[in-house]
Amino acid sequence: MKIKHVFISCLLFAGNRLMAQDKPLLTLEQCYAAASTNSSLAQQKALTIVAGNMAEKNQNLKWLPQVDLNAQATYQSAVTSFPAKLPGVTVDELSKDQYKATLDIVQPVYDGGIISTQKKLQQATTNIESQRVEVDLYQLKSKVNGYFFTALLMEENIRLMNLVKEDLNNNIKKVSAQAENGVATNSNVDVLKAELLKTSQRIIEFSAARKAAMQMLEILTGTAIAENTSFVKPAGAANAEEAVIDRPELKLFDFQKQQFQLQSKLISARSNPKFSFFANGGYGKPGLNMLKNEFQWFYIAGLKLSIPITGQFTKQRDQRVIKIQEQIVDRQKENFLNNNRQLLVQQKNDVEKYRELVSTDAEIVALRTKIKENASFRLANGIITSSDYITELNAENQSMLTQKLHEIQWLQSQYNYKLILGK
To answer: How many CB atoms sit inside 10 A of residue 25's CB?
Structure first.
């Protein structure tokens, strides 16, 4: 018989383990990763990087020779002619209709640093747009936190309510037996049954709230979450002494400042001297020899020096404007850090508050359980009524729900603290 009992116990244990393995588990980190991957923002970031790389490569093309094909046909009211006729010299009069087709080539030799600065400026612009997406993606974590911990809390509440139902069913059996033996009245049984129905209603409410949170998580993560999925309670996350803020917004401010610095360099580069090689060749009437009134081939080649003059007068003023914009970004960054430090102080206080509440909740639950068990014993012996027992049962139930609420709030406040830090 002992061997038989051991064999049955082993089968039951193995069956329970298989059921536990079949039950899907969902962690907070999995939700973070899925929400980030599912969001259209991730695709937007990839497209931003591709577009930025293409624009950067286009900047390199500016070092290639610039080639233009031009053609024109004109008619003019007067043409060049000699004011007097020379003896023995005949010069054909130019036609008033003239034609020209040219191929113009300009090869930059030194552009004052414009192309290299524009290339770096394009990189900075791509970094800014990409980092903006990172900031938006980071905000998703806050939404995931809210729905995940709500679902986790409802799951814990449902588990507690099922324990209450089990307790009520056990006492209904005891009081029903007493009523059959004339020790207790049927009204005592009815009170317990009414409380059982009330507990079932609370399970329905908690299940609906859990389902709503799961559906929102499904939208955020883009994955189907099975009804029997179990939400894994995360470990404590925040270290209240670690207050080094490393949010993606800070990188965005740095990229913006870098962009303004490059814009200032670009202003300086545009006022630098520039060298280029040029060649111009074509076919037209007249050609370079204006004394021949006929179609001719011609070309011109040489070096060109260009020194911007007007830009020298506006250079310093434009750079002062850029400097002010840099200072604005510095103030925005400083304001962002100050606001987050305030949020950290508030969140740290919440972490400490819930930690202290959780430390006393266990004692309250232990006392309420002791009182309820005593009431259950007295009910079984006909000393108190079912209403008296329900009062103590509800008190224990409320203390357990409060304990779970504080535990989840403590966890959520730690992860909110972590989000504010940017960890």
So the answer is: 11
d(CA 186, CA 34): 55
| The token pair that represents 200 in the structure block | 């079932």
Q: How far apart are CA 402 and CA 364, in angstroms?
A: 10
The amino acid present at 325, given as its one-letter code, is Q
Indicate the pLDDT class of residue 237, thresholds 50, 70 and 90. Answer: low
> Could you read off the pLDDT of 222-232 as tens digits, one per residue?
888 888 888 88
Q: Which helix (H) or strand (E) holds 26?
A: strand 25-26
The pLDDT of 392-409, averaged and rounded, is 88
**Model confidence, pTM:** 0.75
Return the structure tokens found at 402.
């409060």
Angle at 152 between CA 146 and CA 156, to 5 degrees: 145
From the options 3.10.560.10, 1.20.1600.10, 1.10.3720.10, 2.30.30.30, give the CATH code of 22-69+100-421: 1.20.1600.10
In which residue are the tokens 């012996």 written? 381
Nearest partner of 28 among 201, 257, 237, judged by Cα: 237
Identify which of 324, 327, 315, 326 has the alpha carbon closest to the alpha carbon of residue 265. Answer: 315
Q: Quick: pLDDT tens for 65-111.
A: 899 999 999 998 888 776 666 666 666 677 888 899 999 999 888 88
Given this model, what pLDDT does residue 184 score?
Answer: 64
pLDDT at position 236 over 90: no
At residue 293, the pLDDT reads 81
**Distance (Å, rounded) from C-alpha 49 to C-alpha 57?**
12
Q: Give the residue extent of every domain in the chain.
A: 22-69+100-421
Burial class (CB in 10 A: 0-12, 13-18, 19+), 149: buried
CB burial of 301-323 (b: ≥16 within 10 Å; e: otherwise) equals: eeeeeeeeeeeeeebeebeeebe
